[in-house]
Automatic annotation (TrEMBL), chains A, D:
This is ABC transporter ATP-binding protein. Pfam families: ABC_tran (PF00005), TOBE_2 (PF08402). The lineage of its organism: Bacteria, Bacillati, Actinomycetota, Actinomycetes, Propionibacteriales. Residues 3-234 form the ABC transporter domain. GO terms for molecular function: ATP binding; ATP hydrolysis activity; transmembrane transporter activity. InterPro entries: AAA+_ATPase, ABC_SmlMolc_Importer, ABC_transporter-like_ATP-bd, ABC_transporter-like_CS, Mo/tungstate-bd_C_term_dom, P-loop_NTPase, Transp-assoc_OB_typ2. GO terms for cellular component: ATP-binding cassette (ABC) transporter complex. Keywords: ATP-binding, Nucleotide-binding, Transport.
UniProtKB/TrEMBL annotation, chains B, C:
This is ABC transporter permease subunit. It comes from Kribbella antibiotica. It is found in: Cell inner membrane; Cell membrane. It is a multi-pass membrane protein. PROSITE patterns: ABC_TM1. It holds the Pfam family BPD_transp_1. Keywords: Cell inner membrane, Cell membrane, Membrane, Transmembrane, Transmembrane helix, Transport. Its main location: membrane. GO terms for biological process: transmembrane transport. PANTHER family: INNER MEMBRANE ABC TRANSPORTER PERMEASE PROTEIN YDCV. It comes from the Bacteria. GO terms for cellular component: plasma membrane.
Length: 344, 265, 265, 344
């Protein structure tokens, strides 16, 4: 079942929380809505779920217009940020809630609840209350509850935001596994964390200031970001102003062999880990170093570009230049792409 | 604030105990002492007796207790139902309407109970609704006064409940009625129990409106106490006050247990 | 809860407006109408007059207003000081002591005002402290009743203030007094202003304790209203009630402005 | 000025929040207290600041016993997690608070406040109220306020936890710079985030369940962790049970050339980015892959060790094996260390 948003805008009072979002999510596809807080990504999810009413635009599920339907009539599974497990109901009753609302026969409810708890590995917690569960366990129950009604669309609103770093990594793996368990379900995954989007999404929709900035398959968006915002928000790329000369480009006066100029694209985008130190590159000065265990991150100023600082990730086994040292950075052409400068 | 020195701590606590002992505890101790006093001419009472307490638990005075309990439960609990419903209705309302509803409900706090009593007296002393002289005018007075407190308690709790719960319940296919009965109200149970306790307790002690509207056949305990004291029967009044205190504490304690259980469950 | 259909919304709101209109607004409208009524024999009053209002603003009745205002400010504001101090002292206390202090302070909510009045009457009608017959017994009654509310308001606000603020201020070298005056109290200003508003408003309307202890020379407005109504002077009572309402709203509004300014600052 | 904790325990009611912590921080040194929530790290900081009283043990500043002194007499700068800027005072009055408490002459206060705001780059915000500042700006003001009293000890309690990811990286650089501005100050830095500890600390004290687990210079702790907990909490190392044979060790039956057995150390510790795929290594099966932009993370099961899963970080330019593929992991001896198994 496809989810289709057609020029959807949402106002909260006079605030424009979502501006003209058009987006299609196919059955079996995972689309991540990625953006900083206030970018409208949660509002978009709430509009699909029916928790807020669009001020204009239409929302369709499998072609049927549901814009005026209340959430109860949409049949969408929703997992919210703090999970919202009903605190007065046991885990099994939480999972059974949607089935009972649909007046499912009792035996069927029992069977399906058991199946769902099995799927998320929470069978032995069926009689617990939500407050007796850890964050990760609550998340599993919330997912089981949402999937119990066999929705064709699953909406996940920052499902990992409430967990600590270690657990987040584990649950990311669980979510990947879950994805394979429900191959036909369309999933909309809202997050501000690029690593979740990269790990889970087929396509990533980057949002900012209530608007969709870019949408594309994850690998494409990462390799050749269409905009400066996407380049830096997704993977923290360095952005360096370039000068063109004929077909070629220069950074701070240094020719970049192999990079072709494109009209209207004045910024060179390169990831911190793609830059190498070597000879005959762009001269930079190290102003800060940070050891991060598996790598060292250098922050450098580029001679001749006083406004710009460059981040370089060096593998941990390479020697770290001293603070203030002058080094030369090599920008491999295959890791470079050009993006338009921001016009605000 | 950590007071780091031992004498500093001791001083703070002594001052605290003195002021609050005098201001808060003293009246109750005096009332209890008077309830059992045969005579009280010096600094301390003398000739202890349970005679006043026997008086307070017989005849007209016992009837008063029954009247007070009926009024408190009828008026107080009705107020909880109306207040809860009002809070739920106002919660979903758009901004300006919610603000008006909010102001409306808080009006009775700024408004003296005698004014409420007077209003009811004037309104219900003539056709089309003649309630003056019946117990219903007392019950309505308590209802009007307690609605504000119930509303305030429940509305405050509603503010703290994440709307996600109701949203998620709806997304699971639950009708608005099912969401209300199976999700929203159960989550408000502690607040509702607390509102019930508050309403009943305040109702048990209400004087201002009651004294304006009560018929001779429906005299609450606080009014009896006033009448006894006014006639100079101070010790009997004190015994009656002790009965009222005990009844109130028992009722509030019982309602509080309900709330405690709701939280634990 | 989003009500998705237009008729559903309209229905909810009509029911809401009706119930609350009748329960909450009606008494006030009736009182205001009665205040200006020359006669009231049918469903609606007739022969409008400002005579009752003139009576309510002259002689004994005007003196009552002055008495009420003095009592409310003296008793209410003293209660805020004592309540705030109590909340601050109890806040830093170890667990069991804090629980006792908490229970102590909440006692007056479960305890009817007539009991407080009776207690003061018994306690202060004899040596060593003979206050019966003076205005001080009224002021003390109001102080005792309002302390609980002030304490509750300030204690609730204290619970919400992160203790880090006081900790950090101390780490910067501030003495406990400086921390109190320059950090803790300014951060509690909205709560204190709110407690003051609540105390003064409740004090303006207090009947239960006042009616037990007041001397003829110190009669508050609510007691006057009761007396007028008891003598059958309903319309003058209504006019007096209107005066009381107006005074209370003005006082609360002014105190609320202080609070608003404290928040904005 | 040195900070010295001598067998300090703290109880909250019956809960033991800190158990027998002994620790010395030298003048000019930065020690990070690193641990999960509830590990006692914040309690340790509060004990040093004087916000909580130790139930036993002594705390000394520059040799002087301050255990019984109130915070106001200790002269320690403290920055708490939510900054606790006084909301009713302007930025400049916040910074001046400590100076005024010390009855510093007015001119001196003005001069010193200006200097502090200059240092943290907040000069133009002097007349703002805290609520008009962003999280990062609030943090700078909190630091300026703490340093205005010229403390010899600075305590930082999770100063970056309230900020979002991008800002956190920037502020980490700011904190490094700040460190150089106050070279003589002893700094205690409480965090649950290993990257902050690695980037800032001279020594890292790893805490768990109210106790100090390990303390050592950061590089040493990372390269040769003394315990399994430190190995996995600091840098997420893989831990593989080893069998010894004479001097050598085997993992799942495969000899690891170059790794020497040590009595009592039964776990091999290796970082995910140090493992390579190649020939003649330990055979593993890929059960999950996660693309993270600059790398791909594989999760693998080891044949013969059913309880263990291994994480491997592959550089982004290497090809990712398919899900379910059997590959061979090479564990370079120079990246391996041995730790004792956990006894709980």
């Amino acid at each position: 079942m496809t989810v289709q948003l057609d020029d959807v805008s949402v106002h909260f009072g006079r605030t424009l929380a979502l501006e003209g979002l058009s987006l299609t999510v196919a059955a079996g596809e995972t689309v991540a809505l990625l953006g900083p807080s206030g970018s409208g990504k949660s509002t978009a999810l709430k509009a699909v779920a029916g928790f807020v009413r669009p001020s204009s635009g239409r929302i369709r599920l499998a072609g049927q217009d549901v814009t005026d339907l209340p959430p109860a009539k949409r049949g969408i599974g929703v997992v919210v940020q703090q999970y919202a497990l009903f605190p007065h109901l046991r885990v099994s009753d939480n999972v059974a809630f949607g089935l009972r609302a649909a007046r499912t026969p009792k035996g069927e409810v029992t069977r399906r609840v058991a199946e769902m708890l099995e799927m998320v590995g929470m069978t032995s917690f069926a009689k617990r209350f939500p407050r007796e569960l850890s964050g990760g366990q609550q998340q599993r129950v919330a997912i089981a509850r949402a999937l119990a009604i066999q929705p064709k669309v699953l909406l996940l609103d920052e499902p990992l935001a409430a967990l600590d770093a270690q657990l987040r990594a584990d649950m990311l793996g669980e979510l990947q596994k879950l994805r394979r368990e429900v191959p036909d379900v369309a999933i909309v995954y809202v997050t501000h964390d690029q690593s979740e989007a990269l790990a889970l999404a087929d396509r990533i929709a980057v949002m900012r200031d209530a608007r969709l900035v870019d949408i594309a398959p994850a690998a494409q968006l990462y390799a050749t970001p269409p905009s400066a915002f996407t380049a830096s928000f997704l993977g923290g790329a360095n952005l360096l102003p370039v000068e063109t000369f004929g077909d070629g480009v220069k950074v701070a006066g240094h020719v970049l062999p192999g990079v072709r100029a494109t009209p209207g694209k004045e910024l060179l985008c390169i990831r911190p880990h793609a830059i190498r130190l070597g000879d005959a590159g762009v001269p930079v000065r190290v102003i800060a170093t940070q050891w991060r265990g598996s790598s060292n991150q250098l922050t450098c100023t580029v001679d001749g570009l006083p406004e710009v600082s460059v981040r370089i990730d060096l593998p941990a086994d390479l020697q770290v230049p001293a603070l203030g040292a002058q080094v030369s950075m090599v920008l491999p052409a295959e890791a470079c792409s050009l993006v338009p400068a921001e016009r605000r | 604030m950590l007071v780091w020195t031992k004498p500093g701590k001791a001083l703070t606590w002594t001052a605290f105990a003195l002021v609050f002992g005098v201001l808060v505890l003293a009246p109750f101790i005096v009332v209890i002492a008077a309830a059992f006093a045969g005579t009280w001419n010096g600094v301390l009472p003398s000739n202890p007796t349970v005679g006043h307490l026997q008086e307070a638990l017989s005849g007209d005075e016992l009837a008063s207790l029954s009247v007070s309990l009926q009024t408190a439960f009828l008026g107080g609990l009705l107020a909880v139902v109306v207040g809860t419903w009002g809070a739920l209705a106002a919660h979903g309302a758009p901004g300006p309407v919610a603000r008006v509803a909010d102001a409306l409900h808080h009006l009775p706090i700024a408004v003296p109970s005698v004014v409420v009593g007077l209003g009811l007296l004037v309104a219900f002393s003539r056709q089309p609704i003649l309630l003056n002289g019946t117990k219903w005018i007392v019950v309505i007075a308590h209802l009007v006064l307690m609605v504000a407190f119930s509303y305030g308690t429940v509305a405050a709790a509603l503010q703290r409940v994440d709307p996600s719960y109701a949203d998620v319940a709806a997304s699971l296919g639950a009708s608005p009625a099912r969401v209300l009965w199976q999700v929203r109200l159960p989550m408000l149970r502690p607040a509702i129990a607390s509102a019930a306790g508050l309403s009943v307790a305040l109702s048990m002690g209400e004087v201002g409106a009651t004294i304006m509207v009560y018929p001779a056949s429906w005299r609450t305990v606080p009014v009896s106490i006033f009448a006894l004291s006014d006639r100079g029967q101070t010790f009997t009044a004190a015994a009656e006050a002790l009965v009222l205190l005990t009844a109130t504490v028992l009722v509030v304690f019982t309602l509080d247990r309900l709330r405690g259980r709701a939280v634990e469950q």
